[in-house]
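Final report, closing paragraph on structural work. Over the funding period we assembled a curated collection of sequence-structure pairs, and we close with a single example.
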Amino acid sequence: MVSVRVINVINLSSETWRELIDYYGLNDYDLKTLYDNMDFFEKYADEIVHEFYDEVMKRGHLKGIINENSTVERLKKTQVWYLKTLATDVIDDDYIAGREKVGAVHAKIGLSATWYIGGYSIYLRCIRKRLSHSDPHVSFSIYEAVTKRILFDSAIILEQYIGDVMSKNEAYIKHMTNASNELIQSVDQVTAIASDFANSATVLAEAQGAVVESASTLYDKSTAIDAMSKLVIEIAAQTHMLGLNASIEATRAGDRGQGFTVIANEIRKLAERTKKSSEEINTSVSELVKYINSINQQAEQTMATSEQQAASAQELSALIHGIEDIATRLKQ
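Its predicted structure, as stored:
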């Protein structure tokens, strides 16, 4: 055993860490005890680390994390260094920062705090096994001091784990809030567009309904005109027949019927012109009726499509409102 000077070995600027180290009962005397027995850690560090990894590699998920991120040989060197640092005689801000860095690295590779702290239990068992051959009083002092120090180290590591998780949660919440705000803005824009579309579709459907009604009225009027033109044709035919009969009777009357013959001929000519015009009107009206029928069918189809668009627009609007509600609840 080597005795050294007594100095102020605990020197922390953080009031929180000073209170915590006092709460754990770790003091200058404990650090001096460990420092005075540095040869113990120098002697058994490799052996303890070897036994430690024999136990760790039995756990499949721990083995997977190690193989994915490093090698056992590289980690053994780091752990040998760590065991030897348990005998250092100073705990200061740099010491805290070093332990925090270790915690951040292990959190980053996905090793949970529970399994990491469980590793300290293995170290304590290995250390106690090797202290059992030493002087009981000295062994107890070393084991008590190293237990306090390991527990304090685990507190630093655990604090880093919690801080890392909280930082990630805050970043995640901020990201989700921003995404929710963007989603709400987008939904508002889509809602406005859908509302305009619904209104336009409704107006279009109403307009198409008016077109169908007008086309139907026009069809009825055209049908009436067609009936009237047919009636005129019949009257013209009868008039022509009357003119023909009158001409025959005028011929029989001789000189006394010559004037009546002229009138009868004019009646016949007028009847023929009326018949011809009526036939042309009838032909035009028939074609007009066909066009009206076609327009009416197209208008009905368009109206049906417009009504369907209006209904779809209303459904879309309702769906968007549902999404907006979800986005608002997500933000909350």
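The longest helix spans residues 136-253. Confidence is low (pLDDT under 50) at residues 1-8. We thank the funder for supporting this effort.
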